[in-house]
Amino acid sequence: MKPTSVHARIRAGDPDVFRELFREHSAFVYRHAVRYSGDWDAAQDVVSLTFLEAWRLREKVRDEGESVRAWLLGIATNVLRNTSRAARRHRAAMGRVPVVEDVPDFAEGLVGRMAHAGQAAVE
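Structure tokens predicted for RNA polymerase sigma-70 region 2 domain-containing protein (123 residues):
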């Protein structure tokens, strides 16, 4: 017998209910992510990560007392925090990398020397 409540179907890992969840709530999660991050591209990544996390955490969804939208919003908020923290760490790490002086391009000098060597061989 198939579980009947949405929450039970989520816990059971019913792919149809996750398809429905995505159709019904992905735009809401996207708008939340855009408001939080201010970045439309990053918000698309957050939507993907949110639904992947929802799948991973499906057995932890509570009973009917919690709305599915609130559950997804909580996951999205955590994903946003994690991605923001990772971006800060990346910027900090890049700031610690020493700046390398520009290395001069030796190609023109090499071509010039080769041309002179070719002329000297002909003479």
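The chain has a mean pLDDT of 87.
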